[in-house]
Structures are given as C-alpha cells and as structure tokens.
Amino acid sequence: MAEERRKRATEAFFGRRHGKRLRPRQDAALAALLDRALIKLDVASHDVAALFPSPVERIRLEIGFGGGEHLLSELARYPHTGFIGVEPFVNGMAKLASAVDEQGGAPANLRVYNDDATALLDWLPEASIAEVDLLYPDPWPKKKHWKRRFVNRANLDRFSRVLKPGGRFRFASDIDTYIDWTLLHCEAHPAFRWEAESADDWHTPYAGWPGTRYEAKAIREGRTPAYLTFLRV
C-alpha cells in the first residue's frame, strides 16, 4: 500500500489543492456535500449503480469538473443517469457544493470524489461507465511538464477498462499542443476511435453544452476550443 501511494504521488496530474480560504457558508455546504455524496474507496466496488439511492440507467464520469458548470447542467438534463464528479481542488468542489446547496442539496444522481482520479479509475469495476468527460484539463504547457498531462497511455488503458463497449471518452481544450497530443495518443491506442466525420465536428460544442468560465476566458484571449469524442471500440 505504501508503494502504491508513492507511485501515485509521482503521477501528479493536478496542481494545487487549495485556493482562497472558504467562507463559513461554503465550508458548511462542502461538508454537507461530502457527507452525502463522497465516494470512499475502502469499500468494494462490485456494483457502482449501488452508489446511487435510486436506480440509474447508466453512469458517467467527469474528471476535473472545475466549478461544476457542465456537471450541474448534465445532472439536470439527465436525471436518470448517475454522475460521478472528480475534483481534487477544494475551491472547485466547494463551488459545486454551494450550487447544489442553493438547489436544496446534492441530487440523488450525483456522487463525488475529491482526490486522484487514477485511484478512482482503478477502483471502478470493468465496463461500468458509459462516458468519461475530461473537459479543459490542466494543459501543463511547458514541455518539461507534458508527462503530467492526464491523457497518456496508462490513463487511456484505465479509460478503456472502465468504459463499456460503445462508451465514449470526450475531451475539450483550447490548447493546440494538448489537442494534438490527445489525438495522437488516442489514435495510437487500439481501444479508441475518433468519431469526427467532418472538419467542423471538432469545433462544434457538445449537445447541450453550457459553456464554462475557462472556455469563455479562452475565447476572449483568441483561442479556439476543440471538442473531441472517442468511441470505445
């Protein structure tokens, strides 16, 4: 176990864990969300659907949900889908917590995880997830940091294990080098096929896309977002 923790510490796909100090109301909302919806990896994961108190038709995973704009939108659009949101940045999780608190508390179809996504991926049963979303991940733009990008062969192996056949991996970014990086890595992986059919496909936002603050910043600064979808074959 110690060796496994040491190994994971070297992966370091995310940066800082804390931002500004939370206000008391944010603290309370965060505590309530984690008390109700936090996934704990010290229990067996034979049936992920059992994490949700009501039956769900399928389960989706969003890694690094930031402020939760997309996750909140999808929760409302698909009430019969179970969603697992991963965000190690405390202030991002607190922002989601405050939003669901204003709506009366965490919806029944939401579960969260506040640590390294690779640990969760290794815990999940095989072929248990219908879709994995990785939207505007940290691009680690300096070449010396590219090894910290979440898209790599090991994590694509993890995705391919937990995704159902016919499931999808969706990736959005405004950083050209990371977009090219992801296309090359997915093209080289036998479990994934890019779904684009025309040159415009990858610049067309996903259906129901609400936009995010990161995306708005990118557009203001003149960067063009790309929306990639890969099929688990």
TrEMBL record:
PROSITE patterns according to UniProt: SAM_MT_TRMB
Annotated GO CC locations: tRNA methyltransferase complex
Binding site for substrate: 142, 174, 212-215
InterPro entries with a match to the protein in the record: SAM-dependent_MTases_sf, tRNA_(Gua-N-7)_MeTrfase_Trmb, tRNA_methyltr_TrmB_bact
Keyword set, alphabetical order: Methyltransferase, S-adenosyl-L-methionine, Transferase, tRNA processing
Gene this protein is translated from: trmB
Protein name: tRNA (guanine-N(7)-)-methyltransferase
Family: Belongs to the class I-like SAM-binding methyltransferase superfamily. TrmB family.
Catalytic activity field: guanosine(46) in tRNA + S-adenosyl-L-methionine = N(7)-methylguanosine(46) in tRNA + S-adenosyl-L-homocysteine
